[in-house]
Amino acid sequence: MSRVHTVVDSPLGPLTLVATKGVLSGLFMDCDNRHRPDPSQLGSADAGVFGDVVEQLEAYFRGELRVFDVPLALEGTEFQLRVWRELSRIPFGETVTYADLAALVGRPASAARAVGTANGSNPVSVIVPCHRVVGSDGGLTGYAWGVERKRWLLDLESGTPALF
């Protein structure tokens, strides 16, 4: 498998972008030790394939981009892929609960925990907007990059970004 990576700056801290065969397959933050792959699995350093991804991320962080349009090479179970597809359909600036997301993937609300696990395994956070999923009471729940970053992303999308 041909993999390359690069590191780019963001308002939330450095992001590591990973491409598999020229297509984005990972977007990781240093603080996400649970999902970040071992450095040996990132491939060689090569910023050449990431131009469009970087441009779209920069536009998003400036509040100018609402929908990402980059090809993705996501690897996961059939259930994870279904959850990630539904995450991508949550409109900019809106949120859904884990129970809502479970219903969207055709599972009863009792599957909210399984949906949460799939949500937490999302390999391209921000682009597949797992930060748009909240608890049943609307409160912020766990986020691999930290609840403060989740709040910052939601505030950005509501038009009230704060300094991070």
TrEMBL record:
It is an enzyme of class 2 (transferase). One of its GO terms (biological process) is methylation. Residues 78-158 form the Methylated-DNA-[protein]-cysteine S-methyltransferase DNA binding domain. One of its GO terms (molecular function) is methylated-DNA-[protein]-cysteine S-methyltransferase activity. The keyword DNA repair applies. The active site is at C130. Keywords: Cytoplasm, DNA damage, DNA repair, Methyltransferase, Transferase. It catalyses: a 6-O-methyl-2'-deoxyguanosine in DNA + L-cysteinyl-[protein] = S-methyl-L-cysteinyl-[protein] + a 2'-deoxyguanosine in DNA; a 4-O-methyl-thymidine in DNA + L-cysteinyl-[protein] = a thymidine in DNA + S-methyl-L-cysteinyl-[protein]. GO terms for cellular component: cytoplasm. Involved in the cellular defense against the biological effects of O6-methylguanine (O6-MeG) and O4-methylthymine (O4-MeT) in DNA. Repairs the methylated nucleobase in DNA by stoichiometrically transferring the methyl group to a cysteine residue in the enzyme. This is a suicide reaction: the enzyme is irreversibly inactivated. This is Methylated-DNA--protein-cysteine methyltransferase. It comes from Stackebrandtia nassauensis (strain DSM 44728 / CIP 108903 / NRRL B-16338 / NBRC 102104 / LLR-40K-21).
